[in-house]
Each structure stands twice: as C-alpha cells, then as structure tokens.
Amino acid sequence: MKKYTKKMTHSLFSEILLQELKKYRDKKILAAFSGGKDSLAMLDFINKNKNIFNINIGACYINHGLRETAKRDEIFCQKYCEKHNIDFYTYNISKELEQDKNGGIESAARKYRYKYLMKILEKYNYDYIFTAHTYSDDIESFFVDLYTGVSLFTLGGIMYQNNKIIRPMLQITTEMVNDYLEENHLEPVFDETNNDIKYVRNRIRHKLIPVLYGCGSEFEKSIIKLQKESRMFNDYLYKKVSHVIIRQDNMVILKRYSFMELEYIEKEYLLGKMISLYCRVSKNILHETISFLNNNDSKRLDLPNGYVIEQSYNTIKIFNKDKVDDFCFNKTFDMPLLKTDDFQIDFLNELKDKQFVIRNRRNGDRLGNKKIKDLFINKQIELFERDRAVIIEENGIIIWVEYISKNNNIKFKRFGI
C-alpha cells in the first residue's frame, strides 16, 4: 500500500471510519475489545464520534485464559471503559478451550469468542458486533489460507460482514492505527503471543511478509486482484448452487438429491462455504466430506469445533453436536405443563397428576414390542430428528414417542431449531 505522512494517515483513518459509522446511524454496536492497538483505536474513535451518528457503543473482552497477562489486559479494558462511560462485558472461556482443543487452540478460541459475543448481542439487544480486523490482517489471512490449502473460491479475503459481525477497519493499515494511537496518546496492551512463531499467522507476519515488502509492495496489487477474481468466481458459483440451500443460520440444511447432482467443483464450493460458517476449512476436510456424502447410508461425520455433517433421507445437515445432546426431565405430580427451549408438553385430564420421565432415545428403546429405531426408519424420520425426538416414559415403560404416537391427552409443540 502507498506510503503516507503521519498527518495523511491520521486523516485517512478518520475519513474511512467516519464513512463506516455513517452506515450504522442510530444503531447499538458491541465492539470486540482486547486492549490491543487495533481494537483500542477502533473503540476510541467510535466513542469520540458516536454522537454524530447517535450510535450506542458497548465493549466486550473475551478472556481466553491462555496467558498470564490475560487478567491484566481484562483490567485494562475495564478501566478504559469505566473512564469513558462505555458499557463493558467480559467472559472467561478458559474452561471451554481446555475441553475443546482437538481442532486446534486457535480455531477453538475463535469459535467460543464469537459464541459469547453473540450471546451478549442477543441478551442486551445490540444490533451489530464490530471487530478490528485491518487491511494488514487481510493480507496475512490470504497467506494463511494459501498455507492451509484452501481453494481459489475461498481466497476472497476477510469478509466485511458475516451476519451480525461487521469489520469496519478492513481499509485501515497498521501504519494508520499506529499514527492514530500516537496522535491521541493511547497506549495499548501487548499480547506477547503475537511474537510466538509456533502459530502459522505469526510466522507469516514476522517471517514472510517483511521479506515480501523488502522486494516492494507490488505483491499487494496481485493479492487484491486475485481476491477480486476469487469473489467473482464465488458469486458465479453461488448462483449455480443456491437452489440446493434450504437454510443457513444456526444450522445448515441442504437438499440431498440436488446436491448429489452438482459437479464436483460445485460440491466443493458449496460445502466449503457452508462449513466455513462454523470453522476453518481445508482441502482435506472438503475431500473427506465429499467422499463421506457419496456413501448412501444415513450417518454423521465429525467436523472441527464440535460440529458434524449428517446425511439422511432427503437432507444434508451441518450443526453443532450440542443440538442432539442427551436430555432427561422428570414430570412430577403437580406439573401439568413441561416447557424447555426446544419443546412444550401439556398433559391433560388423567395425565395431569401422573409422574413421567421425558427424554430422548437410547439404544434398545421399544414402544410395545417394536424397536423405536425401526419405527423411525419405517416412517423415514431423518437422523437429526430421531436423536432429538421426545420420548415419554412411565414406570420404565415408553408410552409416547414424537413423530410416532398419538394421544389426545398429550399436547406437544416443538419450537424452532
């Protein structure tokens, strides 16, 4: 990128972010705040200019518990927000990371970081989450993607928007950030792991990119051109495969038979796009997944970050395993209504005052003399629905099964997934 004087970079920083903030007039924004230079510059600028656009700003620090200095950084963020009257939230995700690091600590950290940011957004009615990814991060990500062996259609760079997540600083360089901090006498915290070259991104940042800049900055133009072509290819392929998508939000559902009719490159593109909603995608993951889907059996394949891909009769689904976790509730004598996040059961007449166990299926379950598994298969109930199906048991005997049974004294309602 072209070199500018400090005065020019400060002016560009302000000009770019003011144009961004204009898009979010009257909105409530949650800033992901680590105390590092990028997020500090972003939050400070938004806070100083929020009244121009009537923006309500809050900030959240996610403590990964991976560094001894993490608590120091959390305190720094909290004090900054207190000083500037910014609503502040914090989450410690160290326990989650300890239990879920098989797919790599970086991937798990990203998963839980966004999970808890979204929880705060929903709980406190924020409109968007702002993260401080910069132009420099975008260049690094290009090489990270090359290193991990992704496809041409995934080299389009960091997305400006992904649902509620906005990245308003993608035109901002590290140089602009540094000059803004200096002009405003701001001292960020420093994450010492940013220098640890055991991480791929850090090796690229400290070893590869300085060498490339040493040869001149022309490589940036080539990257920008390739990213543009990748986005064009991406748009073209999306038009070709969009008819296969039933939904893509907190889970993905695809039309199985329409998917199987796609060309290989279209399958690879669609799966890459859908899986990347939840975790980083590699060529190996895509090839393994397509091979798995070529098998006609109803089954599941594990993906990173606790997600699975499932194919059943008519659909292919991608979802988090916790959607099919075992559950078990007890209905007592004085409980005519049982309500959870997923379903509601009204017990009427003589069933009001009875005791029941409400659960999902277990191996060997029978309704009368028939295996529940066989009943589900005969009715072509999808695997996902089978594992979530509600079963009512009385004194160890199953009396009612969702999708199978009818009973006028049991009024069952399932809520959205």
UniProtKB/TrEMBL annotation:
It comes from the Bacteria. Pfam families: ATP_bind_3, TilS_C. It is an enzyme of class 6 (ligase). GO terms for biological process: tRNA modification. It catalyses: cytidine(34) in tRNA(Ile2) + L-lysine + ATP = lysidine(34) in tRNA(Ile2) + AMP + diphosphate + H(+). InterPro entries: Lysidine-tRNA-synth_C (IPR012796), Rossmann-like_a/b/a_fold (IPR014729), TilS/TtcA_N (IPR011063), tRNA_Ile_lys_synt (IPR012094), tRNA_Ile_lys_synt_N (IPR012795). Residues 356-412 form the Lysidine-tRNA(Ile) synthetase C-terminal domain. GO terms for cellular component: cytoplasm. Keywords: ATP-binding, Cytoplasm, Ligase, Nucleotide-binding, tRNA processing. Its EC number is 6.3.4.19. NCBIfam families: lysidine_TilS_C (TIGR02433), lysidine_TilS_N (TIGR02432). Belongs to the tRNA(Ile)-lysidine synthase family. This is tRNA(Ile)-lysidine synthase. It comes from Candidatus Mucispirillum faecigallinarum. The lineage of its organism: Bacteria, Pseudomonadati, Deferribacterota, Deferribacteres, Deferribacterales.
